[in-house]
From TrEMBL:
Record EC number: 3.6.5.4
Annotated binding of GTP, by residue: 108-115, 190-194, 248-251
Species of origin: Dialister succinatiphilus YIT 11850
Reaction catalyzed: GTP + H2O = GDP + phosphate + H(+)
Domain of life: Bacteria
The protein's name in its UniProt record: Signal recognition particle protein
Upper lineage: Bacteria, Bacillati, Bacillota, Negativicutes, Veillonellales
Biological process (GO), any one: SRP-dependent cotranslational protein targeting to membrane
Ranges of residues in domain Signal recognition particle SRP54 helical bundle: 2-87
NCBIfam families assigned to the protein according to its UniProt record, in alphabetical order: ffh (TIGR00959)
Pfam families in alphabetical order: SRP54, SRP54_N, SRP_SPB
Domain topic, free-text comment: Composed of three domains: the N-terminal N domain, which is responsible for interactions with the ribosome, the central G domain, which binds GTP, and the C-terminal M domain, which binds the RNA and the signal sequence of the RNC.
Length: 445
């Protein structure tokens, strides 16, 4: 997960401030030194990090912090606001033409995720009721045309293609004409990429731009490449002029430097982020404020709720929440929720969206929701009797052995799962005791 290590370091920078009734200038400077180090280690551009600290310091030294009742919270709030600014301030969406047709031109280096993103965008717009058309303008890599055709089949979106000897500028132009004739309202151009930026590529892209006047030229960038992504963005913007960026592979272990520097360095917003290889759900709107909350482990319940609304069964969620509140959450409920939760994406990404859940990361890291582990958990639970699922306390050693045999796993697997479930119940109990209000946790102001 990107930002994971940055998030950990930022939280530890604020640890010493916690619980202090009054903060001194040197307390704040000490914390900010750690924040600065954390940003640089996350591969944030040097100047961006320096300015960031200067802004936070200026605000923190004001009356705001010294006069507040919980100065540590106020400092975190200032950092959150400043991080939000760094990530672009307010959300910047892909703009669609309100009258005619929208042409979206995707550009970027080879391997950044352009073609995949074209497929994801097509599906996203289709789900919103649009009639997209994909156009294969990368004629240099024959596999790219094939790849787009496969994506077209998977998403049931038509793909416009021509033989590889046709000039990509013509392909783009014909694609737009064809879209018009077939009453398509969005054309997504997948253009050629190179391993490095070269003048021939830029000239071709400028020609396509001059020919079809795209509403949106979006630069697809691999977030894993860190500051190289920022350099690429600068070059594309200077040579072609871009409207925004799409940062892919945000589900990987990128340190976050690209996301945090791009807006400041290029002045162009991040419009979307790629969060998995999957076509469906693999692309999200980018909300700077929510991302800042995620980095600081203040959670991002809005995104989680939106994703859940799209993918999950609301009744079952409500039912589970009620059971957690009453302390009646059983292994059967656990299994049901596990199946639901799998629809949301990777487990680590879900944890990242829950306020305060960062600290359970290590405890829960062994759960591989996408693989074997879940199948084992399922088999273990299904091998139990209904009474056992309701009350795990009745499971003694010999019953566990029998369950392991029935599920085709080792007894250690059964024990480990029981331990995880017990930990979870303990956490739920604590949460009930504290009368935690998650909606408040995400909002410090
Ligand atoms: P292109 O050369 O720019 O068209 O790049 P591709 O679309 O072929 O993508 C290159 C690789 O990155 C492929 O293996 C994609 O599956 C992968 N990819 C693209 N976007 C994402 C993403 O958001 N997350 C992950 N994990 N992989 C991605």
């Amino acid at each position: 997960m990107p930002f994971e290590s940055l998030g950990d370091k930022l939280q530890s920078a604020f640890k010493d401030l916690r619980g202090k009734g009054k903060l001194s200038e040197s307390d704040i400077d000490g914390a900010l030194r750690e924040v600065r180090r954390a940003l640089l280690e996350a591969d944030v551009n040097f100047k961006v990090a320096k300015d960031f600290i200067a802004h936070v310091r200026e605000k923190a030294m004001g009356e705001e912090v010294f006069g507040s009742l919980k100065p540590d919270q106020t400092v975190i709030k200032i950092v959150r606001d400043e991080l939000t600014e760094l990530l672009g301030g307010t959300q910047s969406k892909i703009t669609l033409s309100s009258t005619g047709m929208t042409v979206i031109m995707l550009v970027g280096l080879q391997g950044a995720g352009k073609t995949t993103t074209a497929g994801k965008l097509a599906l996203m717009f289709k789900k919103k009721g649009h009639r997209p058309l994909l156009a294969a303008c990368d004629v240099y890599r024959p596999a790219a045309i094939k790849q787009l055709e496969v994506l077209g089949q998977q998403t049931d979106v038509p793909v416009y293609r021509m033989p590889p000897n046709v000039d990509p500028v013509h392909i783009a132009s014909y694609a737009v004409d064809t879209a018009r004739s077939y009453n398509r309202d969005i054309v997504i151009l997948d253009t050629a990429g190179r391993l490095t930026i070269d003048e021939k590529l830029m000239a071709e892209l400028r020609n396509i731009k001059a020919e079809v006047h795209p509403q949106e030229i979006l630069l697809v960038l691999d977030s894993m490449t860190g500051q190289d992504a920022v350099t690429t963005a600068k070059a594309f913007d200077e040579n072609l002029g871009i409207d925004g960026t799409i940062l892919t592979k945000m589900d990987g272990d990128a340190r976050g430097g690209a996301a945090l520097s791009i807006k400041t360095v290029t002045g162009k917003p991040i419009k979307m982020i790629g969060v998995s290889e999957k076509l469906d759900g693999g692309l999200e709107d980018f909300h700077p404020d929510r991302m800042a909350g995620r980095i600081l482990d203040l959670g991002d319940l809005e995104t989680l709720i939106e994703t859940a609304q799209r993918n999950m069964d609301a009744e079952s969620l409500k039912d589970a929440a009620g059971k957690i509140r009453k302390g009646e959450f059983t292994l059967d409920d656990f299994l049901r929720q596990l199946k639901q939760v799998r629809k949301l994406g990777s487990f680590q990404s879900i944890l990242g969206m829950l306020p305060g859940m960062g600290k359970f990361k290590d405890q829960l890291k062994d759960i591989d929701l996408d693989g074997k582990e879940v199948k084992h958990i399922e088999a273990i639970i299904l091998s139990m009797t209904p009474a056992e699922r309701t009350n795990v306390k009745i499971l003694n050693g010999s019953r566990r052995k029998r369950i392991a045999n029935g599920a085709g796993v080792k007894i250690q697997d059964v024990n480990r799962m029981m331990k995880q479930f017990a930990e979870m119940q303990k956490t739920m109990k604590k949460m009930r005791g504290k009368k935690m209000n998650p909606s408040k946790l995400g909002n410090l102001s």
